[in-house]
Specification:
Structural class: alpha/beta
Distance between the termini: 72 Å
Strand content: 5-15%
Number of helices: 16
Helix content: 40-55%
């Protein structure tokens, strides 16, 4: 008989108005069948394990410990042996040692349990148990949400984002951790070997040489780090990536700006697309011909671009995951740009390096979990300024070596004219690809058009 969710009304509402924890949803009948089937056919443990079944989801203590006992003994069973007797002895041993806290079923009870075995439908019964386990986690989350919402310390940003992240974990597909045989994968490798990537599986950067180096652009699941000293143009380059993806290729993109306002970003994107001097726009002295060209550009491309901007000053991993989850579901989000890492909110950590390492790992997992590309801007330490040539290195990434470790691609931005106004390379910028997990590194030279708030390909490219 199946036992479902119980009511959780308090017995004495006048004495205690706090909500009572609900009973855990469970399916005792399915658990009984699984326990019996393991005794009759021990090999079912390996079969269900390969399908992702977790015996910890069995709520009835006796049935869960029977599973563990068979798992312990299955390689030692002899032909014709009364397995329920061996299981009984194992459970008694564990109980005597204090490992098994619950009462041990008698040998007669285990013999009777054998009658419930159903090897042919074990997978179906395991699915019932797993479904109830997910329901139990959701119920527990609901109770936790009630407690958070009822607390005087309720924080509408942190608590809601944390609950959304917990729900995301509770309903994670069971096959996330499935093993794959190389024989099942190698065919796809051969197909990819003769199939050039398209915008369906790449996010173009907007720069021809970078796209060539990255085999068409950024790949889903990648974390890309842009590192530079202040005032080098990190934000400008990030906006160029956003324009290349959203404006030119209609790829849904999110910019999380912790420094600039949404109006500043809108101004800079318009200037970059319509080639309007940014200082003219800010002074309100743009010529009529430039305004007409900008209006046409807006109507043709910018207004319809799937580019979304959030300029909230506070950004945590939990709130970012919640926003990304929603945009992936509703808009098909494929690219997230964060400006910049060191301004994000961090949880409790022993030190700043650990906090930044946690952020870095969390952003890499965000890219993998939602199968999107994540571009993260990072400050560099003062290392470049202490060198004669002033060029940055990957080791200059500020506050944590974990950023370099987690990143799939590291692009370091360098402009000689930022240090020497009379440099013969004035107006040029180097994208130093210092790390590329799936390909070669290189230095890409581009043109920096600061008055238009953009970088662009060199004329020879």
């Amino acid at each position: 008989m199946t036992t479902d969710t119980q009511t959780w009304a308090p017995e004495d509402a006048l004495a205690d108005t706090s909500p009572r924890p609900p009973e855990r949803p469970c399916d005792v009948e399915a658990e009984r069948v699984l326990a019996a089937t393991t005794i009759v056919q021990p090999a079912i443990i390996d079969e269900l394990g390969a399908e992702g079944f977790d015996p910890a989801d069995i709520t009835t203590d006796a049935y869960r410990w029977i599973w563990y006992a068979v798992e312990e003994l299955r390689t030692a069973f002899r032909d014709g042996e009364l397995r329920h007797l061996a299981v009984h002895r194992q459970l008694e041993t564990w109980h005597a040692e204090g490992r098994m806290p619950t009462r041990v079923p008698t040998a007669a009870q285990l013999a009777e349990l054998n009658l419930s075995a159903h090897p042919g439908a074990a997978s179906w019964y395991a699915g019932r148990v797993t479904k109830k386990a997910i329901a139990a986690r959701v119920v527990a989350l609901g109770y936790n949400a009630i407690l958070k919402g009822s607390s005087p310390a309720f924080d509408e940003d942190a608590d809601v984002a944390a609950i959304q992240a917990e729900v995301d974990g509770a309903v994670r597909p069971a096959d996330d951790s499935e093993l794959a045989a190389i024989g099942d994968l190698i065919g796809g490798s051969l197909v990819r070997a003769v199939t050039p990537p398209t915008n369906e599986d790449r996010v173009p950067t907007g720069f021809m040489d970078l796209d060539s180096l990255f085999s068409g652009g950024f790949t889903p699941g990648q974390m890309v780090v842009i590192g530079a000293r202040p005032a080098m143009g990190k934000s400008t380059l990030a906006q160029d990536f956003a324009r290349g993806a959203a404006v030119r290729n209609k790829i849904p993109t999110l910019i999380e700006s912790l420094e600039m306002s949404r109006d500043d970003l809108s101004d800079r994107i318009l200037c970059a697309e319509a080639r309007i001097p940014l200082h003219h726009l800010r002074q309100g002295i743009v010529s009529d011909s430039d305004v007409a060209r900008a209006a046409a550009r807006v109507q043709d491309t910018i207004a319809e671009a799937p580019l979304y901007i959030n300029d909230g000053a506070l950004l945590s991993l939990a709130s970012l995951r919640a926003r990304v989850r929603n945009l992936v579901r509703t808009k098909g989000l494929r690219l997230v740009i964060i400006d910049y890492l060191q301004l994000m909110q961090v949880g409790r950590a022993d030190n700043r390096q650990q906090a930044v390492a946690d952020l870095s790992r969390g952003l890499k997992l965000l890219a993998k979990d939602f199968n999107i590309s994540v571009v993260v801007l990072c400050q560099l330490n003062r290392g470049p300024e202490q060198r004669v040539e002033k060029k940055p290195q990957v080791s200059d990434l500020r506050e944590s070596g974990a950023i370099e470790q987690d990143a799939d691609i590291v692009i370091l931005l360098h402009r000689e004219d930022a240090y020497d106004k009379e440099s013969p390379r004035a107006g040029e910028a180097d994208f130093i690809v210092g790390k590329h997990r799936n390909g070669p590194t290189a230095t890409i030279t581009t043109a920096f058009q600061g008055h238009f708030a953009r970088f662009c390909d060199m004329a020879q490219t």
